[in-house]
UniProtKB/TrEMBL annotation:
InterPro entries: AB_hydrolase_1 (IPR000073), AB_hydrolase_fold (IPR029058), MES/HNL (IPR045889). Residues 33-139 form the AB hydrolase-1 domain. This is AB hydrolase-1 domain-containing protein. The lineage of its organism: Eukaryota, Viridiplantae, Streptophyta, Embryophyta, Tracheophyta.
Length: 191
């Protein structure tokens, strides 16, 4: 089976992101990584990272958030961040009080790990934000997306807002018109 180009060279412990930064995280072999996917993904997107961390002797769990991956729930009915991150909060509630995790969040997973860090500060030893959504104080996730996507009229036209709390309430999620997204990829040179 052919290997991806990212795995063709031999890996070493010096390749680890944890050893390149200035953060000093003590005794990582006894730490537990919890990986939180970005929007539109699931725990499956962490399969290479999970494999590499486990092969290096770390404890790792990748969580499917509500309506994502193998977690069956109609995402159009998710109306709050707390509902979306419930599988993660359930995991941390059951996690031993004397142990800590290292949270890793990608994309909207960044907002999710920020949320649970506030709920369970004694269970989190570190957080790693990977190209993650970072909200300003008082800013909603949808506010952030509208600012990012507002830079391109095509992105705005592709947005389909969902209203799980009713049309008279703020939108609870965003979907995209797939035919317009394909056009956006061509415009940006992705295809």
């Amino acid at each position: 089976m052919p290997r991806s180009s990212s795995s063709r060279r031999a890996r070493s412990m010096s390749d680890s992101l944890l050893h390149q930064g200035t953060t000093n995280v003590e005794d990582l072999n006894h730490k537990h990584f919890v990986l939180v996917h970005g929007g539109g993904f699931g725990a499956w997107c962490w399969y290479k990272t999970t494999t590499l961390l486990k092969e290096s002797g770390y404890h790792v769990d990748a969580i499917d958030l509500t309506g994502s991956g193998a977690h069956f729930f109609d995402s159009n009915n998710i109306s709050t961040l707390s509902q979306y991150v419930k599988p993660l909060t359930d995991f941390l509630e059951k996690f031993d009080d004397d142990k800590k995790v290292i949270l890793v969040g990608h994309d909207i997973g960044g907002a999710c790990i920020s949320y649970v860090m506030e709920l369970y500060p004694s269970k989190v030893s570190a957080a790693i934000f990977v190209a993650a959504a970072m909200l300003k104080s008082g800013q909603s996730t949808l506010d952030m997306f509208s600012v990012q996507l507002g830079l391109n009229n095509l992105c705005q036209r592709a947005q389909i807002f969902r209203y799980a709390n009713g049309k008279d309430q703020p939108p609870t999620s965003i979907d995209y018109d797939k035919s317009l997204i394909k056009e956006l990829d061509r415009v940006k040179g992705f295809i």
